Amino acid sequence: MMDARNIESLTERGEFYLCLARAFLTPREPEVFTALRDALADDLEELGASLGYACADAVAHYRAAIAAIPDHVTLLQRYSTLFLVPPRTIQINTGSYLDGAINGGSVSALEDTYRRCGVERGDDFHDLSDHVAVQLEFVALLYLNSAEALATGAPPPAVRPEHFLDQFAARWLPPFLRDLENDASTPGAGPNPWLPLAHIFATAVAHDAVAEELPASVQRAQRAIGKARHERAERGITADDMEFIARKLREKGLSTEHLAIPPQLRDEARGYSRGTPPGPRKGSRYA
């Protein structure tokens, strides 16, 4: 009987995190808007109540935010403005919060963790491994595989989901939430359903994340690495860093001209402009 309850709990956790994973993917298809508007809040509310997550208020805020978005094109434009189109201030690739740079050490650590569980990048996925949705989907997989292992007597996953949440999500969620909240407080900001979804995720992480018990020497090394990454993320790129980058580029015979342009001005210097995704073409199956 105890195993049956544990299997059900693990399965529900997998379903909960999978719902969130899909909500943080780029909403390219109209069907995604329909699902986010009509089904997601009910699913999260039911699963959250069953799992003991205190997220009813955040679910209510999500209902209000998604109801304020009239159609799929508006949803896609809002997502793009928040997470995709420069100059964006919210990083959907969360390694930036941990490393202060794109594709840094935390991304390598994530990929090593995925490989330990036999997970490889799909051919149809073209983002980095630290995308919010990728991490959520991996947590869902760990819980669902744990439920299956308990039901069949098979070995559990090589990584426990609660340890993964503690090692990664619990560290980048605070600055991710801060940036989402800063956007919401900006005059003229539009509805943002991903802010209450991030609060729901944070509630689940606070409930589920458990630090892995490691040898003292490993804990000290991990704390040192985490501190160094945090300090790098906080201080940003220095003049010494830029000189090091320029030297490495010159050694490889590559141009360094772009380094003289501040990052926030490079799109303008290259003739790029901020825009929004186009609407459906006339005659397409989405029009």
From TrEMBL:
Keywords, alphabetical: Chaperone
Region described as Disordered: spans on this chain: 256-287
InterPro entries, alphabetized: DMSO/NO3_reduct_chaperone, TorD-like_sf, TorD/DmsD_chaperones
Q: Which residues form a coiled coil?
A: none
Superkingdom is Bacteria
The protein here is known as Cytoplasmic chaperone TorD family protein
Organism of origin is Aromatoleum toluolicum
